[in-house]
Amino acid sequence: MANPAAPGGARRPAGRAERSAARRADILAAALEEFAACGFAAARLDDVARRAGVAKGTIYLYFQDKQALFEELVRAMLVPHIAAVEALPAEGPVRPVVEAFLAHIVHDVLSTRLADVIRLVIAEGPRFPALAEFYYREVVSRALAVLDRLLARGVASGEIGNPALVHFPQLVVAPVLMGLIWGGMFQRFAPLDVAALMRAHLDILFASGRAA
Amino acid sequence: MANPAAPGGARRPAGRAERSAARRADILAAALEEFAACGFAAARLDDVARRAGVAKGTIYLYFQDKQALFEELVRAMLVPHIAAVEALPAEGPVRPVVEAFLAHIVHDVLSTRLADVIRLVIAEGPRFPALAEFYYREVVSRALAVLDRLLARGVASGEIGNPALVHFPQLVVAPVLMGLIWGGMFQRFAPLDVAALMRAHLDILFASGRAA
Amino acid sequence: MANPAAPGGARRPAGRAERSAARRADILAAALEEFAACGFAAARLDDVARRAGVAKGTIYLYFQDKQALFEELVRAMLVPHIAAVEALPAEGPVRPVVEAFLAHIVHDVLSTRLADVIRLVIAEGPRFPALAEFYYREVVSRALAVLDRLLARGVASGEIGNPALVHFPQLVVAPVLMGLIWGGMFQRFAPLDVAALMRAHLDILFASGRAA
Amino acid sequence: MANPAAPGGARRPAGRAERSAARRADILAAALEEFAACGFAAARLDDVARRAGVAKGTIYLYFQDKQALFEELVRAMLVPHIAAVEALPAEGPVRPVVEAFLAHIVHDVLSTRLADVIRLVIAEGPRFPALAEFYYREVVSRALAVLDRLLARGVASGEIGNPALVHFPQLVVAPVLMGLIWGGMFQRFAPLDVAALMRAHLDILFASGRAA
DNA sequence: CATGAATGAGAGTTCATTCAT
DNA sequence: CATGAATGAACTCTCATTCAT
C-alpha cells in the first residue's frame, strides 16, 4: 500500500521489469569481463554466471545461447555510441571538429570497456561475420561517412592542404586503431602516449593547409 | 652425379631428417589454416591432423601440446621476416625508402598468410603474453626503430616538413594496421584499396616537406 | 501418515540433499567395483559411470578427479571402522578379547567389500603415499596400539607365556593379512579355511601361558 | 687380430647369442624397475626401453607384448629361487631349519628386488590369474609342502609343542608377508625391524616344545 | 522466474603396437 | 636384428545446454 510500484508484497524498490533489466545488465557486465579476459571460445558461462551472481540456467532465460549473449553484448555496448558518432557539427572550421572526434574516441573508447569490446570484435570478427557486418554498418561506415564529409569540407576550405585525404577517412582513424591494438598488447611493457600520438597525427593531417 | 640423395630432383624417399622436416612443415601449415579460421581455442587438433594428413598422435611427436604448436607456428612464420625488417637503406632520400617499406609490407604481409598470423597474434595476444612480447621484441620494436631513424633523417634533410612525426613511427605504420584489420573483417562486403590508401598516406606524410 | 517425506516408506522424490547423497554413494559403490576389479590405473571412469547409472560428467560434480574419487572411496570405506578398532575391552582375560578382535576382522573385513578396499590400498599404496599414510595413521597404528596394550596385559597376567610377543603386535595380525592376500589370489583354486587358521593361530599365541 | 673370438671386426667380446641374452636381460631389468615403480597398467614401455637402452620396437623382438613382458619378468625372477625352496634338509632338528628358511627369505627376498616382484604379483594377481596360479604352483605350494613336512617332523619329535601348527604352514610364513607388505607401504615413516620380528615369531612357534 | 544437478558430445592427450627403413 | 616415426583407439576431463524442482 505504501509502494504503488510494488504490488503483491515485493519489498524491493524495483518492479518486476526493472529487476529483470538489472539482471540482464548484470549478466552482460559479467560476460564482458569474461569474454574480454578469455575470448569467446575460452570463456565459460559458469564463470559468467558466478560473476553475475546468478545461476547458470538463468543466463538462458535472458539469452538464447552463448553466441547470442556475445552478440547482444557487443551490440548493447556499441549502440549507445552510434548516435554520438554522427553528432559532429556540420559547419565551421574542420580541425577543431576532427580534434574533438579523436579526443572523444580516446577518452570514451580507448580508456573504457569499449576498447575491450572493439578488441573482441576485431579478434572474433572472422568467426562472427554478422557481428563484423553490424559493426561496419552501424559504427564504422557511419563514422567514416561523417569524416568523409568533414574532410571534403576541409579540403574545399583549404584547411586541409592535401586532397589525397578525401575518400580515405580511414587514414584519420588509423592511429586510433593503432592505439587500441597497442593498448591491448604492448602497453604493459612498452607504454604508448596515445594523446601525444594524436597531437602529432593532427599536426600532420593539417600541416600543409592554412588555418581556417 | 654420384650422390643419389643430391638435391635438385624431388624424389619420394628422401632422408629421414627431410621427411621429418616435411611432416613438421605440413603440420604447421595445417595448423595455420585451422588457427586462422577458428582461433586458438576453437581450432581442433583433430582437424589439424586431418588437414596435415597425419594421425592425431603424430602432432605430439613434433610439438609438446596445442599451445606449443601455436606459439611455434607464429614464431616460425615471423622469424624469416625479422631480418627483412632491418634491411632498409640507411642513406639517400627518405621517401623512396618509406615507400619501399610500406610496399614491402603490403605485398609480403597483407596479401599473404602472414596477415593471418599477425591477425592471430593480435587476437590471441592477450592470452599469450609471451607471444605478444616476442612479436614486439623481434618485429615491432625493430621495425619502429628503423623507421625512427629514417624519420629523423627525413626531418633533418627537410624532406619531412613536420617534425611531429619523429618519435611516432607508429603513425607511419598505422594505415598498414588499418589495412590488415579491414582486410580480415570488412573486405568481403566493403573492399578497401590498400594500395591507394598507402599512396594517399605517403602524400600526406611528405606533403609539407620539400623533395629531397 | 501426515508427513509424506517421513522415513519408513522408501519413496522416490526424497529431498535434494538425500538424492545428492545417494548419487554420491552410488558412484562410490560403482567405483569400488571397478577399482577392485581393475586396479586404479586400468579402471575406466566410463564404466564407473555406467555402473552407477549416471553420466560421465556427473562423477565430476562429486569428485575432483579420478584420484580424488579413489582416495575418498578408500577413506569413506575405512572411516566407519576406525572407531570399532579401539572398542576392545580394556579389562579382564586377554584371550577372549584377541579372539573377538580376530573374529571381528574375519567376519567384518575378510568376508566383505572391505577386503577389496584393503587389497586396493596394499596394491596401490606405493603410488598413493597419502593413502598409505592415512591407512597407517587411522587404522593400522591404532589397531596395533590397542593390541600392544592387550599383549602387555596378557604377558603381565601370565596368560601369554612368551614375552617375545610384546612390541610385535604385527605377529597377531599377520595371519589375517595372509588370509586377505590368499583370498584375493589363490582362494579360487586353493581354498584356505581362514577360521581354522585363526584357531590354530590363537592356540599357538596362547600355548605356553596359563589360562587366566 | 688380437681377439680370436671376434671374427669379422666385431670388437665386443660377446657372440650374437650372448648379445641377445644380454639385451633380454637389460629389458627385463628395466621392466622390473618400471613395473615396481608404477604398477603394470601405469608403466610405460617407452620408459622401459629408455631405461634398457634400446628402442621401443626392440622390446617386441623379445616379448610378444606388454603383458608377456610382465609375466616373463615375474617368471624369470621367481624361477631361480624355486629350487632353493625345496633344498631344506630333511633330517635333524627342525628349529634351525625353519630359522634358516626364514632367514633365507628375509635376506634373499625381503631385501632384494624379489620383494618388488612379489609385491607386484600380489598387487596384480587378480588381473593376472595365470601369474597367480604360476606363483602358487611353483613357489607357494612347494614352500608350504616343504614346511608342512618339516612341521610334522617337529611335532612328532616334540620340538613343536603345539600340533595346531600342522596343516597351517601359512602361519610360519605369515610374518614374512607382513614384513613384505609393511616394507612397501609403511617402512618410510614407520620402520619395522623384520629380523627382530622373525626372532619373536620363532620364539613363539617353538615356545611350548622341548629343545631337540 | 530462478535454480543447479545432470547430461553427453567432444576436446586434448597418452601409449601399446606396428612396420618401413 | 634394431630402430623410432607413425598410428589411432582409448582415456580423462570440460562445458554448453537442459529441465525437474
Automatic annotation (TrEMBL), chains A, B, C, D:
This is Fatty acid metabolism regulator protein. The keyword Cell membrane does not apply. Coiled coil: none annotated. PROSITE patterns: HTH_TETR_2. Keywords: DNA-binding, Transcription, Transcription regulation. Residues 44-63 bind DNA. The keyword Nucleotide-binding does not apply. Residues 21-81 form the HTH tetR-type domain. GO terms for molecular function: DNA-binding transcription factor activity; transcription cis-regulatory region binding.
